[in-house]
Amino acid sequence: MNSETVSQKDDLLTKPDFNLDLDLLLTYLYCTLDDEFPEQGMGRPQMANDAEMVCISIASVLLDADKERAWLRRVERRLGHLFPRIPHISQYNKRVRRLAPMFDRVVSILGEQYPEIAESLLIVDTTPVPCAQSEETVMRSRLGPGPMSKHRRELLRLDGNEDHTLADYGRCAAKDRDYWGFKLAYLCTPSGFPVGVRLLSANIAEQDALRALIKTSDIAGKLIAGDKGFRGDHLALEIEQAGGWLIRPDFINETPRYGKGLKIRQNIESCYQTFKGQLSLERHHARSLKGLTARVLERICALASALWLNNLFGQPGRHLTAYDH
Predict the structure, then answer these.
(1) Whole-angstrom Cα distance, residue 194 to residue 169?
(2) Which of 91, 185, 193, 246 could cysteine-pair with 189, CB 3.0–4.6 Å?
(3) pLDDT tens by residue, 52-105
(4) How far apart are CA 279 and CA 257, in angstroms?
């Protein structure tokens, strides 16, 4: 068999001649992850392994099933031909929360196969993640101290939570509103593929949110585009020390450097619209920090998976319509 024949055969295996859909995404994703995740050790056999659980949870996000109990009532009918062993609701909740580190690993695995990661341009921004609408809900929520007593705040700290990982009051300047919850700091490629993600308290400044991102992300040789909120010579110096460069729109009272606006930032605004529209970021229904973290990472992983498959089949752009039914 000559090299041309082998190449044609590989193309047929990797790029079948039919439209993209959710079944294809889950099949490719499972085959990619199954070899990467360790097999179960000793103990009671699991209804589904970790790779299957990741695929099932991602499918719930893409199909806009924001409540887990309602999702499990329809998952067997929709995905039973792919995953015949579906955990019960009590097992499903616990497994998804324990899989939070796995979602990060999935994004890293897919990022190794995403060519845009190697390019030099990244975009950064923050967006609100509201968690309560009334003062009564804030007072009894387990997501953060809010107006609780100092004793309750200390108990949350003893559980390993610092101030910047507890829900609090913040302000969204874009929509001119106050909210109680968290702030999602997102560092991504121009197409929206995640490079760094942090869930921080709503009252954290954007400069500190970016500082938290660069502690866990490799920005060496990267040009980071942000908005006016990322102002500060100290912040720019810290990014340069990490090997990157920061650009942002100029203020009126500054020496002109980058211009009044950066059109590339529209990409991340569109990405946030995808999170809050198709991926229901603000309808997370989380009641605990572990639950909120897992549900946010589910949505990050779902977007990364869709972008990964679109790129694999030559469908550029953030198109998720093929996977929402």
Answers:
(1) 26
(2) 193
(3) 999 999 999 999 988 888 888 889 899 999 998 888 888 888 888 888 888 999
(4) 37
Give the gyration radius of the chain's Cα atoms: 21
Query: What's the distance, CA 22 to chain centroid?
Result: 19
Which tens digits make up the pLDDT trace of 89-148?
888 888 888 888 889 999 999 999 999 999 999 999 999 999 888 888 887 778 876 555
Query: Can you give the length of the chain in residues?
Result: 325
CB count, 10 Å around CB of 304?
23
CA atoms within 13 A on the CB side of 26: 25
pLDDT at 260: 65
76 within 8 A of 86, measured Cβ to Cβ: yes
- How far apart are alpha carbons 152 and 1 in whole angstroms? 70
**Do residues 222 and 120 touch, judged by C-beta distance below 8 A?**
yes
Domain map (residue ranges) of the chain: 118-284
Helix (H, G, I), strand (E, B) or coil at 94: helix
pLDDT average, residue stretch 32-56 = 77
Helix residue spans in the chain (DSSP H)? 3-14, 22-34, 50-62, 68-79, 89-98, 100-111, 135-140, 150-158, 206-216, 233-241, 266-276, 289-312
Distance, CA of 71 to CA of 59 (rounded, Å): 10
CATH says 118-284 is which class? alpha beta
Farthest-apart Cα atoms in the chain, separation? 74
Pairing of strands 245-247, 194-201: unpaired
State pTM to two decimals.
0.86
Angle at 117 between CA 217 and CA 58, to 5 degrees: 85
HEC letters along 175-231: CCEEEEEEEEEEEECCCCCEEEEEEEECCCCHHHHHHHHHHHCCCCCCEEECCHHHC
